[in-house]
Design goal:
single chain, 31% helix, globular, alpha/beta
Length: 235
């Protein structure tokens, strides 16, 4: 979906106390950017902020970083967070936002930046073959995440092709799938906060696919290094 340019979006973000205008300068030091030092969770492609505004508010013992590529989307996430915390009369201290192209995540994070969990919610499925390398679950992306990940990746989508191919992607990048369903809303023990897209797809009758993956400790280290070096060359 094409997002119209909103000239007020960038200035509003620049004046936001929890917006990071130069995320590359925080590389290796993300834990020091928060008021309280505690585990960090990362949402890749936060959109309008429907998920992060619920997740971060409900889990004050975690810090959150939410990333999107568009000012026009991130400013809506910023507003949604402010409203959610204000309703509970709580200070907004455990969330940071920034703009970035997630394909180059390594420019903003390094191995010193330990991430407890990564959320990928309804990312662009990029269905054309020549564009699949842009998927947030493509192996060349997953090996980047693995460099900073101590915990799990939680992935949700409505797209059957993306989900099926992502299962293979996780295996190729040295992850093991520890939980999976093709009908999340009939699995109450696996549900967590819904996004705007999820509510829309649910109303359309689309089944929501979901999996949890974590690094496989038995995956050969030399193979992982080959994948990471290949990923760097292809950026």
């Amino acid at each position: 979906m094409r997002i119209r340019c909103k000239p007020w979006a960038k200035p509003e973000l620049e004046n936001c106390p929890f917006y990071i205008s130069n995320p590359k300068s925080c590389r290796g030091q993300w834990s020091t950017q928060f008021i309280t030092k505690q585990p960090i969770r990362l949402e890749l492609g936060c959109g309008k902020g429907g998920f992060i505004a619920q997740e971060a508010l409900a889990n004050p013992n975690y810090n959150y970083i939410a990333i999107d590529i568009k000012n026009e989307m991130l400013v809506l996430a910023k507003r949604k967070l402010e409203i959610s915390y204000a309703k509970q009369n709580l200070p907004l201290q455990n969330v940071l936002l920034f703009i970035d192209n997630i394909m180059y995540l390594r420019e903003c994070f390094c191995e010193n930046d330990r991430i407890d969990r990564i959320y990928i919610n309804f990312c662009n499925p990029w269905p054309r073959s020549k564009h699949k390398k842009r998927r947030l679950t493509h192996p060349r992306q997953l090996v980047q995440y693995r460099q900073i990940l101590d915990g799990q990746i939680w992935f949700k989508t409505d797209d059957d092709m993306l989900f099926d191919e992502s299962i293979s992607y996780f295996e190729q990048a040295g992850f093991r799938i520890v939980s999976i369903t093709r009908d999340l809303h009939n699995e109450p023990n696996l549900q967590y906060f819904e996004t705007e897209h999820e509510q829309m797809f649910d109303q359309m009758g689309k089944k929501i696919k979901f999996l949890i993956a974590e690094p496989d400790p038995t995956f050969p280290e030399e193979k992982l290094q080959d994948l990471f070096q290949y990923s760097e060359r292809k950026q």
